Q: What sequence folds into this?
């Protein structure tokens, strides 16, 4: 199809409660949406970058700038494009995977809408519903943590993930395990907050029958992950370290992880995410779908991705009300701990135009010859 325009829209979307991790606190999301306008259909993409470069080197303002100044001109110059061509066309621009993933998602949504095919079918999904877990931020107190976790369990979530950091690890995990029992599927996420001096804290977590310990060390430090993995019964899972299918294969071969968290935005798009799943399956490693506080648009695409056969663990594909009082699509509602995989063409959801307009803080339209 031929791209006629790209609409870049920024939204301010409030969270229902502050979300604290080892790298900061969020009270709202500065969301960048991209609408791909083509001669066949329109499609939407959601950028998962945060407002500041604290989870990765990318951030929303930078993503918008690189799309405007470098990525969009290359797509327009390419003429007729398909979703599978987006990656090769944008490859000369180094890095900026989240920005590239946003454009790929928008083009893919438009392409699939034009052909009447759901994203899950296109990617090779095999499930009609996916199991859902929930990510729980660092709480002010253990009592408040237990109250929050209890609420999510009552709501039906099938797995709990606790954010941890040095000083907020062993005791919160112990409290959750003792309060809710051994049957609770429980895992922790360090967001690279540990180093050689705090490894002993991670070793103490081996006593709590966790599903996994996610990304304890810096993303480049595969060797320290491999060393820890040798000493623990609990599987090590990598998140920030997995930036591509090649990176996943290297980490697995080094023994740095036994489980992989796949986030499509972090790896450059849903096509690369599916390739990572295939490679992990070939190497005997299960995967699950991570989350970046996506709106209903990104959540729909994540649920489609999580329907692939090697996604064997509940992902961070929570219901809309976990993060937002009002979503920009019809809300995803948890039923028996699961979410339905969208079956409509493309990503499978429609934006609520009135809500999007009310949350919009800025907008610009890029067209061929004027970028």
A:
């Amino acid at each position: 199809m031929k791209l006629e325009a790209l609409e870049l829209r920024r939204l301010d979307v409030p969270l229902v409660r502050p979300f604290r991790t080892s790298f900061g606190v969020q009270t709202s999301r500065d969301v960048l949406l991209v609408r791909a306008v083509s001669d066949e259909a329109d499609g939407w993409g959601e950028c998962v970058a945060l407002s500041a470069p604290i989870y990765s080197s990318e951030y929303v303002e930078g993503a918008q700038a690189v799309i405007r100044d470098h990525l969009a001109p290359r797509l327009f110059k390419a003429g007729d494009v398909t979703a599978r061509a987006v990656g090769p066309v944008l490859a000369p621009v180094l890095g900026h995977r989240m920005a590239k993933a946003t454009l790929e998602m928008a083009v893919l949504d438009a392409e699939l809408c034009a052909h009447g095919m759901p994203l899950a079918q296109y990617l090779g999904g095999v499930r009609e519903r996916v199991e859902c877990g929930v990510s729980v931020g660092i709480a002010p107190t253990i009592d408040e943590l237990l109250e929050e976790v209890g609420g999510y369990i009552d709501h039906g979530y099938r797995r709990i993930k606790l954010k941890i950091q040095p000083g907020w690890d062993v005791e919160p995990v112990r409290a959750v395990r003792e309060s809710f029992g051994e049957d609770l599927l429980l895992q922790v996420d360090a967001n690279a907050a540990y180093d050689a001096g705090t490894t002993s804290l991670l070793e103490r977590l081996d006593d709590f029958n966790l599903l996994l310990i996610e990304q304890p060390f810096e993303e480049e430090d595969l060797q320290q992950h491999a060393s820890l993995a040798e000493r623990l019964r609990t599987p090590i899972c990598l998140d920030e370290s997995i930036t591509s299918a090649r990176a996943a294969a290297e980490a697995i071969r080094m023994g740095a992880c036994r489980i992989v968290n796949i986030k499509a935005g972090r790896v450059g798009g849903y096509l690369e995410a599916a390739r990572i799943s295939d490679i992990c399956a070939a190497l005997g490693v299960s995967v699950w779908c991570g989350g970046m506080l996506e709106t209903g648009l990104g959540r729909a695409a994540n649920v489609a991705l999580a329907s692939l056969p090697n996604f064997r663990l509940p992902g961070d594909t929570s219901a809309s009300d976990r993060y937002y009082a009002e979503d920009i699509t019809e809300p995803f509602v948890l039923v028996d701990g699961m979410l339905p995989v969208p079956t409509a063409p493309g990503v499978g959801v429609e934006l609520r135009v009135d809500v999007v307009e009310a949350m919009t803080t800025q907008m610009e339209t890029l067209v061929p010859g004027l970028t």
Q: What stands out?
A: The longest strand covers residues 3-21. The radius of gyration is 20 Å. The mean pLDDT is 96. The CA atoms of residues 191 and 215 lie 6 Å apart.
